[in-house]
Each structure stands twice: as C-alpha cells, then as structure tokens.
Amino acid sequence: MRYKDYVWPHNPRVYTIEYKRTMGARKVPFGRYHLQDLGPAQRVMRGEGEFVGEGAYGEFKKLATVFYAGGPGLLVHPVWQTSNAYFVELSLRQEPRADYVGYSFAFWEGYDGHSTGVQVTGGGGEPETGPAAGTAGERRHTVRRGETLWGIARDYGLSLTELIALNPQIKNPNLILAGEEVRLA
To answer: Can you give the pTM of this predicted structure?
Structure first.
C-alpha cells in the first residue's frame, strides 16, 4: 500500500472502506415524513497494522511525518482502487516492547468531480483544440501489451507518482490495458 511517497513495508492487517449516503428527513404535517436522498458522502478508508522488528518505531515516525504534511495525496491499495484522499486520523498503540508498534489510520476520499472554472469555446460552440486550449507540449503514450505503469514511467524519466497524478482516469495502477492512452506531460 502507498500514500503520497510513503510505501508501507507490508500491507496493514485490516483494511475497510465505508460507504455512506446522506439522507434528509422532513416531517409532513398531519402525516408521517418525507425522505430526501442528498447523495453519497465521502468514502472512509480505515486500517490497522503493526510495525515489527528493529526500527519499528522509526517506521511509525515516517508514517506520522506523512500525516503532518497535510493536503490530499494519492492512496494506492494493491487490490482496491486508487483514490485521491486526505490522511485524517493516525493512532499509535505502543506495546511495552521496543520492537513492536501497533497503529490505526483513516483516510477520507476527496471528490474532484465538480469544476468552478470557465471553459473557453470557439465560435462554433465546440471546445478549442490546439495550443490555445493548453495542449501545447502534451505528450501521450499508447499502452502496448505487457507494459506496466512502472515501466512506462521509467522509460520516460518520470516517477510513478508523477505519472499517476497526470492520469487520474487510471483508478488501479496495477491494471492498465493495451490501447489505453497515458498522458506524459
């Protein structure tokens, strides 16, 4: 598992994802009630694990440093989908041993599905293309059979984190298909 630049030495023992829908309930005069679906709330990813061996507490300190950095980051789980998330909780459970540290954490998924920007259109109502629309210097790579994001990043001199940040449409970096377009710049 990975968050921002921190990679867990081994995956947490427990990992849960909570889905929640916000509902409104209004009393109807001389009646019962009316429910209103206000839509899904943020997903919450929680986990528990241990760091064991020499340097267990040092490993926890690395994780705590990432927590204190603040801001959203890319949370990658090897099985579940990748998400843009905020690190919102971190707890330490210190046993009376120097080589064991238990911990728990929580991440809240960020939602970037809305836009407050203005889209510039040409005279015909179609979005502009070309240099005026900001595509100057944009490079793409078409995935070939057997390629991985790690290999593509290495071939183009990018870190995996940079490549994933440029391609938010890729939900699971372990699963890319031949023919997909990967943005490089």
So the answer is: 0.58
